[in-house]
Amino acid sequence: MNNDDILNIGDWIYEDGYGIVEKISPLYWDIYNHEIYQDEEDKKFDRILYPDKPAKELGNLRAVELQIKRFCDYKGIPIRRNRTVVRLKEYSCHVKAKDLRLIQKAQKNYPKEYESFLKLNKDVITYRGSEYIVDSQETAEYMPDFFRKYISEELPDKFTAVELADLMEIHGCPFNLRNPYSRGDYYSGNKILVEFYYKIGDYREKHLLFCGLRIYGRFDHLTDDYGWIRRPDQRK
Questions:
Q1: Sheet architecture: strand order including 18-28
Q2: Scanning 90, 99, 105, 160, which has its CA 20 to 30 A from the CA of 214?
């Protein structure tokens, strides 16, 4: 696929069949991304390996997300499940002329399904995750109480990672969102996994606007689900 393909809202693209682009949303490097904390040697290697990509630095473009509404498969049969999906732009491209003809044929053969496709309007919520080292399992197990006591009620309905990090620092959180776990041995140590949930297309000044927060504890080979701190559909 041509990663330089210029895509616009409404364009037909390949997506396990054929679909149109509904939303185009940039992703920028943020404080919870491990990669921006690389040492100089790793950064130098990245510049050699990917000379045309922006450096992995706070605020630089990381990728572009597409929200795609799928109509039919490669045989022209309407898709009935998982009709709205999210993919990175670099893995997507326009359909060719012969495929457009197949799409047009499917539109004529399945008018009711095509009408349903046109009316479909769904907000997709997805998430980004990051891990953080804590000093002990006891500290990790304290985190659900900490977040629910000090963080949950003070968070606005939509918040950035920076706003969350500032709030955590004010209340003395044992780990810092600005210093994520640098991936080494995936299973070693005591860690907190934070999942940041957001609606595709929601961001402010190069920061994703999150509407949900969930945390987990990780100890050796085990993962404990500490549950929601803020559900994506929760309103205060």
A1: 12-14, 18-28, 61-72, 84-88
A2: 90
